[in-house]
Amino acid sequence: MKRSVIQLAGKTSVVSLPSKWVKQFGIQKGDELDIEQVSNTLVIKPNRQGSEIKKIELDINNYNERVLRCSISALHKLGYDEITLKYEKPILSDTIQDLTRTLLLGFIVSDQTPKKIVLKNISIELEKEFDASLRRAFLVVISFANSSLDLIKTKQYSTLPTLINLENTNNQLTSFCLRLINKGLYKNKEKEVFIITLIWELEKICDEYKHICQSLEKNQDEIQEETINLYSEVNNFFTEYYNLVYTFSTEKLNNLVDKKEELMKNLNNIKSKAENERKLVNLLITIVSKTGDMSSSIFAIYLEKQQTT
Description:
Elements: E1 6-8, E2 12-14, H1 19-25, E3 33-38, E4 41-46, E5 55-59, H2 65-77, E6 82-86, H3 92-102, E7 107-113, E8 116-121, H4 129-153, H5 165-182, H6 192-216, H7 225-246, H8 250-268, H9 275-292, H10 295-301, H11 303-306
Helix pairs in contact: 2-3, 4-5, 4-6, 4-7, 5-6, 6-9, 6-10, 7-8, 7-9, 8-9
């Protein structure tokens, strides 16, 4: 989309707004717009966040439970504010109600009949909520990691599933962050793809800690001290990546890249006859790999700090 620049009074440069965008946000003569310069890009937003109400209606009769969960999660992330779901199988309503409680921050069931349910967003989403939500998502993973290690150290394996609610909280926060991005409430358009990648990795890392809790719930085998110690190192490794996101330095990134290689080597060298311990080691390897995969995105987010003037 291109627009020609119009010169007024020899000093003021003016461009027209796309008519589709004007209609979508109900822009009227005299309305104020928020204009922000991001590098060589101008970001123009209505000066009344949340004015656009995105609605969608779906027939979910052919959806199984897993597809339904994925679909509603996707619609939430895409920024829809009102989701109408039609069905002939009332049993699906239980899944929808569960998702509303555990995933869809700010949503309620606003209408329900035997063949229809309407989910509606009742919250006011603000740009300033993004940074706080992302930080909380990191801290939830750190809490999950350390709490699970403490229970494993003390052999309280049957208690591990009680931590899985932390994964639900992380899902809520990461989904909410992606929703804010798709609602246009993330401040840096040039870095969107990198912050999205970071959020996806964060959500997947939390999944691996959930899998650890599930796989060790009924463990009866002894877990070696070496494995326990490496679990602690993996948790510290993730915590250092969290610190890197908020206090970036090339030196820190260099050290973490080296640390990844060391951890991978040590984890792969663990020998165990116990099946549950082998599963644990494989999951820790996955956590290290996914955590290290955040390096490129973090570097890109902080690229300006690496450039010399």
